Amino acid sequence: MTQSAIDQIPVFIINLDSSPERYQHAEQQLQALGISAQRFRGVYGKDLSTTEVDACYDKTANQQYFRRSLSPGEIGCYLSHRGVWQLMVDQNIDVAIVLEDDIDVEARFAAALGQINKLDGWDHIKLSDDRDTPAFSRKAVGDGFELVNFKRVPNCATGYAISQSGARKMLQRNKFFRPVDLDLQFGAELDLQLFSLLPYTIWPSSKFDSVINQISGGTRKGDTTALRNLKYRLQVVWQRWRYQSGDLDLVKFK
Questions:
Q1: Where does residue 12 rank: exposed (0-12), middle (13-18), buried (19+ CB within 10 A)?
Q2: Strand, coil or helix: what is 57?
Q3: For residues 179 and 69, is the Cβ–Cβ distance under 8 A?
Q4: pLDDT tens-digit profile of 124-158?
Q5: Is the C or the N end of the chain the one with fewer CB within 10 Å?
Q6: What does the pLDDT look like over 31-82, one tens digit per residue?
Q7: Do 48 and 76 touch, CB atoms closer than 8 A?
Q8: How many Cα neighbours within 13 Å face the side chain of 41?
């Protein structure tokens, strides 16, 4: 892959002001691969006022469509990702890579960017999954990589590519009500064409605590009840039975 191909896709690392060492860890790995990254200032959920939370978080929809209330960290994490999507729309960025800062980067990450740069017809491509979720169907794209879709979408937002169309679709929600990684599992609600590129080239780093725990400084157990949890599980089952995460036939080579 040529340097010009690498430079065609901007790479954003979400990072809090209080955690410069996490950004340095991620940036140094990318620099070693010849990839420049931009720091994107993360939102610290516990600093948000009640007015700021009410402006972005739909408590009524949360009661209806998720199993518990969101923690301050999950709200801040979602706002951080939304901030990158909004930047893409505002600056008319066609494709971007979004990384959380608690990552380890595989040597083939640059090659993965090269494959993404050749593809059209997708909204979101996951580059990380710490649970090895099984694929539903597969499509070879070159250099040993495969594009796959899912019935059970990985609930990991550690690293992904997102297109302009994907950013616009995710921003259709004026307010959110699930954590960002789990909201992506319900991408069919927004007609999101979501895939993964295998093998994965981004992994959560054991060097740091999870980004949500670090942002929130608190628990995520919330206020679930047995009935609420059952209702959410039935929604998940329905989603998996009825939809696949993306149509591989729509993805074309440029």
A1: buried
A2: strand
A3: no
A4: 999 999 888 999 999 999 999 999 999 999 988 99
A5: C
A6: 999 999 999 999 999 999 999 999 999 999 999 999 999 999 999 999 999 9
A7: yes
A8: 2
Distance CA 126, CA 130 (A): 11
CA torsion 55-46-170-89 (nearest 10°) is: 80
In this structure, are residues 79 and 173 in contact, taking their beta carbons and an 8 Å threshold?
no
Tokens of 186: 């319900």
Residues with Cβ within 8 Å of 236's Cβ and at least 6 positions away in sequence, in order, are 185
Report residue 243 as tokens: 């939809």
Query: Tokens in use for 21?
Result: 């060492």
| Closest to 191 measured CA to CA, from 175, 162, 176, 170 | 170
Are 183 and 245 a contacting pair, CB within 8 Å? no
Q: Letter for the amino acid at 95? A: V
Count of structural domains within the chain: 1
Strand pairing class (194-198; 124-126): parallel
Q: What range defines the domain where residue 142 resides?
A: 3-253
Q: What residues does 160 pair with on adjacent strands?
A: 98, 126
Distance CA 66, CA 142 (A): 38
Question: Percentage of the chain with pLDDT > 70?
Answer: 92
Query: Are 9 and 162 spatial neighbours (Cβ–Cβ below 8 Å)?
Result: no
pTM of the predicted model, to two decimals?
0.92
The length of the chain is 254
Residue 16 phi/psi, 5° resolution? -80, 150
Quick check: 129 and 245 in contact, CB under 8 A? no
Q: CATH code at 177?
A: 3.90.550
